[in-house]
Hints:
The protein has about 400 residues and is an alpha/beta fold. The chain has 2 domains: about 15-40 and about 285-399, Alpha-Beta Complex (Aspartate Aminotransferase, domain 1), CATH 3.90.1150; about 45-280, 3-Layer(aba) Sandwich (Aspartate Aminotransferase, domain 2), CATH 3.40.640.10. Helices cover about 45% and strands about 15% of the residues. Helix 2 crosses helix 10, helix 4 (about 100-110) crosses helix 9 (about 250-265) and helix 6 (about 150-160) runs parallel beside helix 7 (about 185-195). The longest helix is centred in the last third of the chain and has 26 residues, at about 285-310. It is globular. The relative contact order is 0.16. Bound molecules: pyridoxal-5'-phosphate. Pyridoxal-5'-phosphate (PLP) binds near residues 235 and 245. Pyridoxal-5'-phosphate binds near residues 35, 99, 125, 175 and 233.
Amino acid sequence: MTYKFSKRVPQGDTDAVGDILKVAGDPKVMSFAGGLPAPELFPVAKVKQAADKVLDEKGPAALQYGSSQGVPELRDVILKRLEVEGIHTDTDHIMVATGSQQSIDLTGKMFIDEGDAVIVEDPTYLTAIDVFRSYGAKFVGVDMDEDGMRMDSLEQALKDNPNAKLIYTVPTFQNPTGRTMTLERRKKLVELADKYDVMVLEDNPYGAIRWEGENLPSLKSMDTTNHVIYMGTMSKIFSPGLRLGWVVADPKLIKKYTMMKQSADLHTDSLAQYVCAEYFKENDINDHIKAITALYHKREQLMVKAIDKYFPKGVKHSNPEGGMFLWVMVPGVEDSQKLFDAALKRNVAIVPGDPFFGNATIPGTFRMNYSNTPEDKIEDGVKRLAEAIEEVMSVSATK
Ligand SMILES: Cc1ncc(COP(=O)(O)O)c(C=O)c1O
């Protein structure tokens, strides 16, 4: 049977990232590949208490169909978190989504027609690339350095693509690089969005997990012209399994998002929304975020220390001040997949750089995750990975 798929469905049967994550899930393999939070910190007992209370007190509402814009109690919780992030708004500006992933998907559906330019950081979150590609986007990659997206390159991209529909950015502890955009660049980005009249999709799943440096204002908090759509999520500060995210935008846009969400899934899981709101009422999320931050910092320090001890000379890495990832650049290596293959031979998994680019890739790059590896395993994994890098570098040097 030959299926007559729409253009949105990926061509061919290869699922490179799925294959990587599958092998990374093998218990023999030490995985620095995934992007999973540390499961030992999930507040299981407290969520159980919250769930019991919700079912006792508002069981029928929690099990019933609900509002497409989201349960009011949860939108109040989100409003308070936005205050902490310097975004002063009201609940009309908020829609609950089924994770940030749905916010990205609905944004693609709302703004992108076949052939529209979408401006992304080079590299960027790979599943956002998949979404925008499914809507027919043409990618325009903008260089980054350790201070985030370069504004001279962004302005050039805007001049070259006057009809660009969207700038997608993860300004803080970016996935995959762990880099953070400076305050100066944030201000410039908001200014450019207004000047060239292009929408910005600001994706901020990691911003609260900071162990070093100063908190920086979100783009949304500086936006006075409604060019910024902001997305947040419970996934990295609470639980990804609950699938709770949010979009913050002008109420006119929120209305459209809500209509698009109705066609996608009617509304986000009511029980999950009530349980989350109840958990936030009874517990201080900031204490929980502190525990997450302390653990990830410890793991990141161990990883960086081992990298600096074992990786061959010339290999560079980012130095995140928070979040879950760091980015490695190996000189002289043309094919990032070779790094993955050599690491896997030694039972270590990383994500090679290629899928994080909309178009041309930066060769010899890969992403490492530290949030999900126990402290006593990190050094051994990095040491084996160092041997793999050395092997690939020496083969590349003899070519
Ligand atoms: C940058 C970025 N955006 C969005 C998501 C999706 O998160 P959610 O679990 O909220 O759908 C992720 C997940 O890893 C991410 O890294």
